[in-house]
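PROTEIN DESIGN WORKSHEET
SECTION A - STRUCTURE
LENGTH: 290
TOKENS:
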């Protein structure tokens, strides 16, 4: 029983990381219709920025996030303005290739600045074990789960009630119609990149605190992609829930079946689900009149 609870606790933590990263993917896709393949690299880069802030200023977790999130949002706005804004109106494939090129650049820049060696990021958080309903957690693990719950709630409220969120939904639904009613598509795209980068900062810092900070952190973006597909590319909340599902499936399959299944179980799940629901568990069915 203890082994099962340990697998559940670790699966929830990994799933929370997947969910936070997947929300960033889905947010950009919902507003722009483009998959940002540099999102994993943004997660990595913002985590390294947070690490440098702790080394220079000795910031604890809350002040660290209050500083890192705005920096990451400015970074997202800058990247969107330099690399993505000039591509508006170009084929989607061309924009996707730009994000892939941006990903390679960010990986190289990160290694140039911080080197290839792994680092520890604690941000002053205790390493004591806390039991919740008999399940053991570290404080940083509980913070990851809480962060996913908070970001999911704020994301729902933002898209449902805020003016910017409604604009994003309008642009995602019909870009031309949104332009006709006075919505700035370019500004909406920029805001989506900024908010996605803010989510990347939360995900990157918490993942580094729970596991490690290393240049291969970008790979978590690829590992989170099954959650995006499972939840639905256009469903931000669905991506969050699907991240937890993928994390639990990966950990349980590794614990009870074998190590190799952890790396492929998420992709097996999305293949099965997409054969039944091509738009994901929470995505919107795309209907066209002919």
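SECTION B - SEQUENCE
RESIDUE ASSIGNMENT:
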């Amino acid at each position: 029983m203890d082994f099962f609870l340990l697998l559940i606790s670790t699966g929830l933590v990994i799933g929370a990381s997947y969910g936070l990263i997947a929300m960033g993917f889905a947010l950009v896709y919902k507003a722009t219709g483009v998959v940002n393949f540099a999102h994993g690299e943004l997660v990595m880069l913002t985590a390294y920025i947070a690490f440098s802030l702790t080394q220079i200023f000795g910031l604890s977790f809350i002040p660290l996030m209050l500083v890192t999130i705005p920096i990451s949002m400015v970074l997202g706005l800058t990247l969107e303005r330099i690399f993505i804004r000039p591509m508006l109106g170009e084929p989607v494939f061309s924009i996707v290739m730009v994000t892939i090129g941006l990903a390679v650049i960010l990986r190289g820049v990160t290694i140039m600045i911080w080197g290839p060696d792994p680092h520890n990021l604690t941000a002053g958080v205790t390493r004591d074990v806390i039991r919740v309903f008999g399940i053991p957690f570290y404080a940083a693990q509980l913070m990851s789960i809480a962060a996913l719950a908070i970001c999911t709630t704020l994301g729902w409220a933002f898209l449902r009630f805020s003016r910017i969120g409604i604009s994003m939904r309008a642009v995602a639904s019909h870009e031309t119609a949104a332009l006709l009613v006075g919505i700035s598509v370019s500004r909406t795209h920029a805001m989506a990149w900024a908010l996605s980068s803010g989510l990347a900062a939360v995900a990157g810092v918490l993942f580094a605190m729970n596991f490690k900070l290393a240049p291969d952190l970008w790979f978590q973006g690829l590992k989170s992609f099954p959650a995006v597909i499972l939840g639905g590319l256009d469903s931000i909340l669905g991506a969050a829930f699907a991240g937890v599902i993928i994390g639990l499936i990966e950990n349980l399959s590794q614990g009870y079946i074998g190590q190799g299944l952890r790396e492929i179980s998420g992709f097996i799940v999305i293949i099965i689900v997409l054969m039944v629901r091509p738009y994901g568990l929470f995505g919107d069915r795309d209907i066209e009149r002919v």
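SECTION C - NOTES
The chain has eleven helices and two strands.
The domain at 2-276 is CATH 1.10.3470 (ABC transporter involved in vitamin B12 uptake, BtuC).
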